[in-house]
Structure formats: structure tokens, C-alpha cells
User: Which sequence fits this backbone?
């Protein structure tokens, strides 16, 4: 356990004993400091991580002096005791997590924003205000360490036992190709079906009656005509023939005998007891002497497997990055209770999520069409182009310059090739066991909640790939949740096709492990940002590429839900790719106009949108938009604006303040104002005439949106403010963002078709930073940090 983890645990204990009981409304009073943000940084103690959050705030406020008349009160609609130190904002706490690793990165850095003189000018007051001091404080000390105390849980959003209702019913946020009326009333297809009769049955025509049972009985027959009577012997013979045929068919084809999810489920749980009891079996087997792929799918014993699989070692438990890489999906992490999670105090059994929206059935439905399209296009040696749901956005198909995907070189895909090895592949020779086709090479790339990622070399052509070995099932995780998570990544990995989304080459089941072979990207964006070498233009390029990936996802009805620096990788040509779809959800099915809301607190704390922490259900698209903006802010500032979007986080509280509104719930549930033709009666004006304690003051950069925005380049402020609107209904959607003049003006590196292949066209105003491979990935950075600590 790292010393930080220990510190946090001690702190949580202290807080638990000091804290007051939960209340149904949490009204906090904050006095914004009169000092600008950078001054706060310099005044900040480096040791307050272990101190009580509220008292610490108080002390800081006293130290910096209260500002009469600027007391702000913001009410959060729920309250729970955060067990982490969220008192100091990340803006305030830049020295809080000082680490030698981070300090070492300063050595690379000539200036905070890279070497581009032009880019420095763009920042105007930011550079002047923060200068060199900003470098030492902003210089990344918050970014990595924040990760340590963040955590991810997929839990249903109960708050103090009370489920906060769905937010999206009031959100006029359109689904691709949808009409808004449908969205608002039918935001959840499952609830729609159950309530349909009650709602509409009264309106049925008189000649139709509602079906009230799914048991269909045959009509009674009194006498049977002789020609329909079959002799007993004939019947016996026929049924024997039938049985024989069925057995033969089953023996021939396992893959046809069940659904995809049940196949996967069987695969995961077909372990024999010997392997199951061996906790060290988690290693990826690359030995050429493979015992051969397991072919025991038919004999899999789900019940045995689910109890016998060992609890995996949490490789990143003590990592400085671990918290941001915490369980995304569907299991409860008892080791890292989310400091922010409303589920903190729930017993494990209650906090295992039951998300309706990413269920296997849903995913299968979503991918049924798109997968077949994708695969068939591959088979035809054409470059797959398109998405299951077209929203009018031309989705560029792509290939990877360095990959075997060059057109004309598309081997036929196979889906579960019958030898029990390759589940999905469009790679050559996938009938040969994985361990005979690849060898492990180099260092590990990283490990997270979903598994560990290693570097492999394909023997046949020496090409390098990244291989993710999915983790085994946790003891306290249901088979359903486990299979759901893996299935989700499988479906998404094998379906998506976009230059800014990682390419899955094949998915293999071997020696009871699920391995996802992906194209390899040389750098983690996190590592590049931490190098402090990025120019402003380079940051903008990466941001636009991330947005382009998000636009593609949203256009096909998918939301990522865990966008963060760690989940963006970048290749040596400067192409950014989104990875880790373990938390992704479908919000719109092909040909459906209904919005399917997401549920659960899923994501990584500093990147979470506020509504995720408040509502049981929410539209996942604005969540991606918010997270993308936080990524941008992190790239610019080299730190998080706050640790978690809750009022207990002082920085976030200040960000919510000064908005002529006392309640966060009111701010988050706002809907866009109708157009006003009379300035004097505009709703905005009316609001400020009200008696709010949180009077807006655009000149005070410590409160309100300007708390974050003023630190960003001026040209970015408009669209970033649209992306971090507290109300998801008012947040800009991805298409609006892409149309923003500044975003449009960004010169972005992109892949373009070049005959039958693709090539990268670099942006004309920047080059992409490259770092030494030893620190290009999170695992390398961790290693380096450990070394420095010893
Ligand atoms: N295709 C790739 N190319 C290069 N590096 C990669 C690739 N995929 C993953 N990595 C590295 O492995 C790390 C872990 O990958 P990933 O996020 O998929 O794992 P995870 O277990 O799902 O993590 P999380 O805890 O975020 O859920 C990444 O942060 C990155 O450093």
C-alpha cells in the first residue's frame, strides 16, 4: 500500500469520526479568496492532504482574509461525507502531492506552454500572472497525484438511500436522427415498455384488447380426423432421428448453439479447478509450447468457475495513477472506496451496479447490425466505412499506416473460429494459437481496472501490437457484470472504425485468458502532457482529435463515459486515439429515436460531470463533452481544476458560485432559456434581480465559470464555457462544438485516403512531442517514480 493510500485511509478514519451525519441538503458557505488563483497556489501548504477538509478551508480563508460581502452559499441537493480530502481545490493544492517524478519533468521544460513564443503570447495574462511560479505549481503536481485518490465505481446513484430521479426527462438534448418529443417522454426504453399499457391502453381501439398474459394455450379439440393420426412407432422413429441430428449439429458447431454472450460467458468460466486456484495464472502465456486453446467450451461449468476464479492482484493499487484508473465498469472495488461515491457506505452487495443500459442484450442489439456490416465489408476487401446509425456525418474509414490493414490486405474476419482460440479476428493466421503467433517484447505498457496491457511482436512480420489481457472476475463480482464488461469492450473494440479510435486487430481466448490485440500507439497522452513540452498548437490539435473521436462515437449512438488523458494514446505520427471502452454505453439504438439514459457513477473523479454524481440517470453525451473540456484544461494547466465535481471540493464550489443562484440542483437542472425579444424581461435579468447570495461578479476571477475560464486562452473560453456548463441541457453538443470558429481554425493532424491506403497529414503549425520510450507510457512513468523514491 502506498504511503499516500495509507494517508488517505487515516484521513478517512479521522473524517469519519469528526464528520457530522449526512443531511438531506448540504448548504455550504464559502468565502472566495481575494487572491487570484496563482496566489492561492503559492500560499498553499503542502501538507494539508491529511488534514480535515473543512477546517483546512477555514484556515486558508482566514489566512488570506475574508472578503466582506462576497460570501457565497451554494446548496447541493444531496449530501454525503466525502472521505477524501476535497477541501483544497486542485487549483489550490498544487504542492499537495509533490513528487520527485513530477519534479523531474520540470527539467525538460523551458516554459510552461512549450517553446512556442507565439503560443505564449496567446495566453496573455495567464503567463504573466503565473510565470515561473506557475510552472512549479502548475507543473503537473496535481495531475498524476490526483489520480491516486480518485476512483471509479459503477454504482447506481442512490443518495442517502434516496434515488435522485432521472435528469434527462427535462433535457432537450437530441439523439441523432431523433425528434425531441420522443426523447423527453421516452428516455428509457425499458421503462417505456413496462408503462406503455398503463399510459396508452385507454386509447386502444375498441376492437383490440390488451394482451394480459404471455401463456398461449391451444384450443381444445374434441375429435381428430383419422388422416391426422400418426402411429406410435412412427412417432418414436421420428423423434430418435431428430435427437441424433441435434447432437451431431451441436457437436459440429458450438458457436451456433448459443448467443454470443453465453459463448463469452462459457469461455470465461470454463476454467478447470486447477487453474482457477492458481492465483499466478494471470500472466499472459506467450510460450510457444501452448497446451493449445481450450476446447472445453461445451463442458464449461459456470457455477464452478464463478466461485473458483482467484481474486486478481490489483497491479495498480499503489500507483500514483491508480485512482484515475479505477474500476470503470461493473464491479465494486472495496479496496478503493470512491471518496466521492454516494455508494461509499453501502454494503458491497448493494453497491454492485445493475446498469440496465449496457446489458449484454442491449449491446448485442446495438452491434448486431453494425458488426455484420463491418465484418462483411472487411471480407470484401473494402475499407469499412460507416456507422450503425448514420447521422449525416461522413465517417472516414481508416487504416493504419504501419499496420497490416492496408487495403487489399484485409484477411477475412472470423467470429469464433471453432478451435476455441480466436473469438474475433481480421488478422492473418488466426487459426494458429496466439502464443505461437506473438512474442512478448519490451516493457509492460500499463495496467488498470480492466486488465494489463503488454507489448507484443507478431512473429510473421515483426510488427508491434498492444495486447490487453482482461482481468479475471473478482470474487465479489457477479458473472453477469463481468461478462457484461468484457462483452462491452469486445463489441465496441471490434465494431468501431475511426482514425481517432483504437483499432482492435483480434480478440483471442487462450489458456483461460481473454486477450485483445490492438494497434500500438507509442505514447500515452498523459505522458506527453506530463513532459511539459507540448506547444499550445499541439494541445489544440490533440483536443480537436479527441473531439473528432467523440463526434464519431456520438454519431453512432455510443458514449465513452471515461474520457481522460490516460485513455488517450498517441502514435508517433501525432494521431490521437481513444482507448478503454469498458465504461462505454449505448444511448441510441439503430433506427430508434429514443434516448437511453446511462446510470451509475462511472468515470474518473476529476473528469466527472456534475450530473453523474447527482442523478440516477443521465444523458451520457454531455458527460463526454464535460470530460473533454476537463482534458483540455488539464493539457493547458497541467493540473485538474478540481478533484471532484462536488460542493465539498472547494474549488468546484467556487466554480459553482457567483451565478445568481444558491442551489447546485437548480444550476444543474436548468434548461436553455427561450429566445427573448425584450431585453428588459430576459430571464437572466430577472434572476439577477432575485435575492441570491451568489451574486455574479464577472470581474472576480475566483468565483463562477471564470474561475476556470480566465486561466485558459481567450479564444478558447467561449466554447469551453459551453462545454462546462453545469446544466447538461445547456451544454454544447458535439456538433455545435465542432462548428465553433476556434475549433474549426485548429490545424489538426489527420489521416487521409491515399489511393488504397491512408497517410497522415500533419497540422501545419506544430510538431508532436515525443518522449523517451522509457517514460512514454504510464507503466514506465510509474517505474521511474518508484526508482526515484528508492
Ligand atoms: N493500444 C495501445 N497502445 C499503447 N498503449 C496502450 C494501448 N492500450 C492501452 N495502452 C496502455 O495501457 C494502459 C491501460 O489500458 P486501458 O486503459 O485499456 O486499461 P484498463 O485496465 O481498462 O484501464 P482503466 O483502469 O482505465 O479501466 C493505458 O493507459 C496505456 O498506457
Assistant:
Amino acid at each position: 500500500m502506498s504511503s499516500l493510500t495509507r494517508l488517505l485511509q487515516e484521513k478517512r478514519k479521522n473524517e469519519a469520526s469528526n464528520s457530522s451525519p449526512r443531511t438531506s441538503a448540504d448548504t455550504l458557505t464559502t468565502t472566495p479568496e481575494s487572491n487570484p488563483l496563482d496566489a492561492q497556489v503559492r500560499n498553499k501548504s503542502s501538507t494539508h492532504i491529511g488534514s480535515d477538509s473543512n477546517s483546512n478551508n477555514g484556515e486558508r480563508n482566514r489566512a488570506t482574509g475574508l472578503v466582506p460581502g462576497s460570501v457565497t452559499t451554494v446548496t447541493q441537493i444531496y449530501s454525503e461525507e466525502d472521505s477524501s480530502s476535497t477541501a483544497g481545490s486542485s487549483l489550490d493544492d498544487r504542492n499537495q502531492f509533490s513528487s520527485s517524478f513530477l519534479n523531474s519533468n520540470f527539467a525538460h521544460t523551458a516554459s510552461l506552454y512549450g517553446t512556442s513564443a507565439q503560443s505564449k503570447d496567446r495566453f496573455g495574462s495567464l503567463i504573466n500572472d503565473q510565470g515561473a511560479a506557475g510552472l512549479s505549481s502548475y507543473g503537473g503536481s496535481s495531475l498524476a497525484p490526483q489520480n491516486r485518490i480518485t476512483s471509479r465505481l459503477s454504482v447506481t446513484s442512490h443518495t442517502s438511500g434516496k434515488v435522485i430521479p432521472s435528469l434527462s426527462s427535462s433535457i432537450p438534448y437530441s439523439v441523432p436522427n431523433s425528434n425531441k418529443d420522443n426523447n423527453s417522454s421516452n428516455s428509457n426504453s425499458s421503462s417505456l415498455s413496462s408503462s406503455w399499457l398503463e399510459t396508452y391502453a385507454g386509447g386502444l381501439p375498441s376492437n383490440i384488447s390488451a394482451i394480459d398474459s404471455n401463456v398461449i394455450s391451444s384450443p381444445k379439440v374434441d375429435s381428430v380426423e383419422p388422416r391426422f393420426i400418426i402411429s406410435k412407432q412412427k412417432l418414436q422413429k421420428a423423434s430418435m432421428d431428430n435427437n441424433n441430428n441435434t447432437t451431431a449439429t451441436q457437436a459440429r458447431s458450438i458457436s451456433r448453439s448459443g448467443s454470443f454472450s453465453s459463448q463469452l460467458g462459457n469461455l470465461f468460466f470454463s476454467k478447470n479447478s486447477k487453474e482457477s486456484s492458481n492465483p499466478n495464472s494471470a500472466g499472459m502465456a506467450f510460450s510457444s509450447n501452448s497446451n493449445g486453446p481450450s476446447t472445453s467450451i461445451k463442458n464449461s461449468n459456470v457455477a464452478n468457475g464463478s466461485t473458483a476464479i482467484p481474486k486478481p492482484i490489483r497491479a495498480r493499487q499503489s500507483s500514483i495513477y491508480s485512482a484515475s484508473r479505477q474500476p470503470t465498469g461493473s464491479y465494486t472495488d472495496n479496496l478503493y472506496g470512491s471518496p466521492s461515491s454516494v455508494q461509499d457506505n453501502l454494503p458491497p452487495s448493494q453497491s454492485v451496479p445493475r446498469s440496465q443500459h449496457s446489458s449484454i442484450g442491449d449491446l448485442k442489439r446495438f452491434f448486431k447490425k453494425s458488426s455484420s456490416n463491418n465484418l462483411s465489408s472487411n471480407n470484401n476487401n473494402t475499407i469499412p466505412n460507416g456507422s450503425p446509425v448514420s447521422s449525416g456525418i461522413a465517417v472516414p474509414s481508416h487504416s493504419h499506416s504501419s499496420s497490416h490493414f492496408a487495403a487489399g490486405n484485409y484477411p477475412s474476419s472470423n467470429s469464433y473460429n471453432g478451435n476455441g482460440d480466436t473469438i474475433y479476428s481480421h488478422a492473418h493466421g488466426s487459426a494458429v494459437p496466439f502464443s505461437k503467433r506473438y512474442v512478448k517484447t519490451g516493457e509492460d505498457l500499463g495496467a488498470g481496472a480492466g486488465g494489463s496491457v503488454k507489448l507484443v511482436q507478431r512473429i510473421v512480420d515483426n510488427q508491434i501490437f498492444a495486447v490487453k489481457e482482461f482481468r479475471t472476475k473478482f470474487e465479489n463480482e457477479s458473472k453477469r457484470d463481468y461478462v457484461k464488461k468484457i462483452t462491452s469492450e469486445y463489441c465496441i473494440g471490434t465494431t468501431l472504425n475511426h482514425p481517432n479510435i483504437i483499432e482492435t486487430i483480434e480478440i483471442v481466448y487462450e489458456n483461460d485468458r481473454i486477450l485483445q490485440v490492438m494497434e500500438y500507439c507509442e505514447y500515452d497522452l498523459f505522458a506527453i502532457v506530463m513532459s511539459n513540452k507540448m506547444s499550445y498548437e499541439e494541445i489544440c490539435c490533440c483536443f480537436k482529435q479527441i473531439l473528432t473521436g467523440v463526434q464519431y462515437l456520438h454519431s453512432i449512438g455510443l458514449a465513452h463515459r471515461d474520457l481522460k488523458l490516460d485513455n488517450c494514446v498517441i502514435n508517433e505520427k501525432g494521431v490521437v486515439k481513444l482507448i478503454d471502452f469498458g465504461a462505454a454505453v449505448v444511448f441510441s439504438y439503430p433506427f430508434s429515436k429514443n434516448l437511453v439514459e446511462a446510470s451509475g457513477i462511472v468515470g474518473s473523479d476529476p473528469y466527472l460531470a456534475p450530473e453523474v454524481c447527482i442523478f440516477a440517470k443521465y444523458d451520457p453525451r454531455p458527460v463526454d463533452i464535460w470530460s473533454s473540456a476537463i482534458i483540455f484544461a488539464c493539457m493547458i494547466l497541467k493540473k485538474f481544476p478540481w478533484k471532484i465535481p462536488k460542493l465539498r471540493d472547494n474549488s468546484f464550489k467556487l466554480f459553482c458560485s457567483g451565478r445568481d443562484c444558491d442551489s447546485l440542483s437548480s444550476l444543474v437542472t436548468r434548461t436553455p432559456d427561450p429566445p427573448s425579444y425584450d431585453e428588459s424581461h430576459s430571464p437572466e435579468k430577472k434572476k439577477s434581480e432575485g435575492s441570491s447570495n451568489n451574486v455574479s461578479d464577472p470581474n472576480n476571477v475566483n468565483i463562477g465559470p471564470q474561475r476556470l475560464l480566465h486561466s485558459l486562452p481567450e479564444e478558447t473560453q467561449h466554447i469551453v464555457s459551453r462545454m462546462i456548463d453545469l446544466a447538461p441541457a445547456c451544454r454544447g453538443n458535439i456538433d455545435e462544438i465542432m462548428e465553433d470558429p476556434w475549433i474549426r481554425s485548429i490545424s489538426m493532424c489527420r489521416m487521409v485516403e491515399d489511393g488504397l491506403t491512408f497517410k497522415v497529414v500533419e497540422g501545419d503549425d506544430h510538431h508532436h512531442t515525443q518522449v523517451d520510450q522509457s517514460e512514454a507510457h504510464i507503466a514506465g512513468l510509474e517505474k521511474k517514480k518508484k526508482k526515484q523514491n528508492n
Observations:
- The pocket of adenosine-5'-triphosphate is lined by residues 325, 328, 445-446, 448-451, 453, 466, 468, 502, 518-521, 524, 566-567, 569, 579-580, 582, 777-778 (CB under 6 Å).
- The first strand starts at residue 26 and ends at 30.
- The mean pLDDT is 61.
